[in-house]
Design brief:
Order of helices and strands: HHHHHHHHHHHHH
Number of helices: 13
Distance between the termini: 45 Å
Strand content: under 5%
Structural class: mainly alpha
């Protein structure tokens, strides 16, 4: 694959974003910021990264974390201090408010409303150097996607292998906080083969794209859909807002992959692809299709083709052996 440094254009993450980024437009416009990051076609990383020279140990051994264990941890987090900062829905106004009252999405209450708050709270929580689970999550993502074994250094250019834009992956998480990492792990948990296909395409010499910033952007879009009530019906059907958000994110990633791969897209197309994809994802008429696509296994056709070719060769060899006898 091409060197990841070549990918630091449209998807590059600004190094010093406002500290109140995430959440709602009223909290600093995180979603606008994410869109701008895609559109910075000439924004290559120019500053010399110095984080790798920070003092202190960088190789503390962290065991991998399963997605199930991660969910248990997330559900135990006290989000009370964050509640006042969260905007979990966009209240309609005027005539639109009356229409929503009659025909709008179902209102989330009880456990579903609590889960929705937890989704937005996780997007507020930033990477904490003193939190072991954050390190385990980050390390697990690197291992799952690259196939590495053991703990890698906290800082270093190796993080570019999964698309982070510098030596410190935490700087890329400002827009969606730890939720950005949680979703990236869930993408792999949902379907390992599909995650592998996405990762391989991100490292392709022609169709490369930085995996992590794209993932963070799609998490941001998923949060928009949740805030707008677009995922409420699915949340009620499943009995889980968290699950509805996570699978919408996966569906968004699958939609991107299919568009990018089939269309032969490259980084020069990324601005247009992003705008068209976001518009499509935030259209209520396409929500069902976004969930439906998560049932697919990406890269499956190529695997089946390879398997058939392999069996064909074996059959040919068997025929040649029989004929020789």
């Amino acid at each position: 694959a091409a060197e990841p440094a070549a990918m630091s254009s449209i998807f590059s993450v600004r190094k010093n974003p406002p500290k109140d980024v995430e959440g709602s437009p009223a909290e600093g416009g995180a979603e606008v910021e994410m869109a701008n990051e895609w559109d910075r076609v000439t924004a290559a990383v120019q500053e010399d990264q110095t984080t790798g020279a920070q003092s202190g140990p960088q190789r503390t051994a962290y065991p991998p974390v399963s997605y199930r264990e991660l969910l248990t941890y997330i559900n135990q987090i006290d989000i009370e201090p964050l509640r006042s900062q969260l905007l979990v829905e966009e209240p309609p106004s005027g005539l639109f408010a009356k229409l929503c009252f009659c025909f709008g999405p179902p209102k989330l209450t009880g456990v579903l409303a609590d889960e929705r708050e937890r989704c937005f709270a996780m997007a507020k929580i930033q990477f904490d150097e003193n939190e072991e689970m954050h390190h385990r999550l980050l390390q697990t993502i690197f291992r799952k996607y690259t196939g590495a074994t053991g703990t890698v250094a906290r800082y270093g250019s190796h993080w570019e292998d999964v698309g982070f834009q510098g030596k410190d992956p935490a700087t890329d998480l400002r827009s969606c906080g730890v939720l950005g990492l949680v979703h990236l792990l869930y993408l792999h948990h949902h379907n390992e083969q599909s995650a592998a296909a996405i990762y391989m395409l991100s490292r392709d010499t022609i169709q490369e794209f930085p995996l992590a910033p794209l993932s963070i952007n799609l998490t941001s879009i998923a949060l928009k859909a949740l805030r707008a009530g677009q995922l409420s019906a699915e949340a009620k059907r499943r009995g889980s807002t968290w699950s509805a958000l996570a699978d919408f994110y996966v569906g968004a990633f699958y939609q991107f992959y299919l568009t990018w791969k089939a269309g032969g897209k490259t980084m020069k197309d990324s601005g247009f692809v992003r705008q068209a994809l976001e518009k499509d994802l935030l259209s209520t008429g396409t929500t069902a299709a976004t969930y439906e696509v998560t049932k697919r296994t990406l890269g499956a056709s190529a695997a089946v083709k390879a398997e058939k070719e392999s069996k064909g060769e074996e059959l040919l060899l068997s025929t040649e052996v029989l004929e020789s006898k």
